[in-house]
């Protein structure tokens, strides 16, 4: 990846006319792929069977069952509800923990179509708000790279699939925004991150260490209150929810899951029936994360240092999907605002466009191992962007001004 980045940076040495042509070509490719994706998204919204062909169906089914005081994890009941809206595959069960159920509970009081529209509109609002908050946190720069966040392929895939990861992204961004000024609310926002806790294992280990070292226990209190309230709401509708959840998880057979991610590929290639091997990358990631935090503990910055942390966290979870990479938007936007290389920005945009093109060619993208390269590519791009930004910052530093101070 790094040699490719070095070759790409050579574009910055082209003559101005050639550089302009190259930039127009990049803009044209990215605009075309985004336009096709956006058109597909609009068409999917208008389809009569939209509810029954998206991940939303599992959220609506669980919310409907919970609203009627039924077990939201029972596969037979889930399948009957999903069949009622045209879903024609095996039961798709919402595997998120019980504290996540209040997020989908309101859907149970709405018709499938109304619930779907509410879900999509709120997802779009969360994506737009997340990108705008990151932009504001970087000082509202005039060089507005927000378009990179709005058109990031995994985020678009989340919208197409009506997946929950956009809400996870919003929770992460709120934590980054509030951890200094409003630590309790920052802790509350982490409840959204805990909709998919497996994506934040190294991140969570460092967060606990940071809370203890900085004595910022209001963050922990906010998270505890959010978890307590959400779990209490769920228990009101289903007093046996934890027993139902544990029974569902024991029947899920994660050791047989065929999720296209690095951890599962490692287990399948080395020792297919050994589940602990699937957790080895996450364990090593946690060890690295704690060591990395300890080196930077005196000047820890959740936007700067946390960006690398979240990239590693999404690289090593025990299971993950390509659409979960939407939570990388804060890290990639930080890299974009740090570097001053237009060629690197163009490379990021083209990589995202390449994923969109791959989505057009592969109908079963969520089950495909073709996109295993994506997280390593984002990580390599980020390291190169930040390194270049730091080098430019060092070059801009004036010794004479320092001596004057």
Structure description:
The chain is built from 21 helices and no strands. The longest helix is centred in the first third of the chain and has 31 residues, at 16-46. It is an all-alpha fold and 405 residues long. The chain is globular. The chain has one domain (2-392).
Task: Give the arrangement of secondary structure elements.
Layout: H1 2-9, H2 16-46, H3 56-67, H4 75-83, H5 101-104, H6 112-137, H7 146-150, H8 153-161, H9 165-178, H10 183-193, H11 201-214, H12 217-237, H13 241-252, H14 262-270, H15 275-278, H16 280-295, H17 304-315, H18 329-338, H19 342-361, H20 374-396, H21 399-404
Unreliable runs? 1-5, 394-405
Strand portion, in percent?
Answer: under 5%
> What's the helix count?
21
H/E topology pattern? HHHHHHHHHHHHHHHHHHHHH
Give descriptors for this structure:
single chain, about 400 residues, mainly alpha, disordered N terminus
In short:
This protein is an all-alpha fold. It is 68% helix and 0% strand.
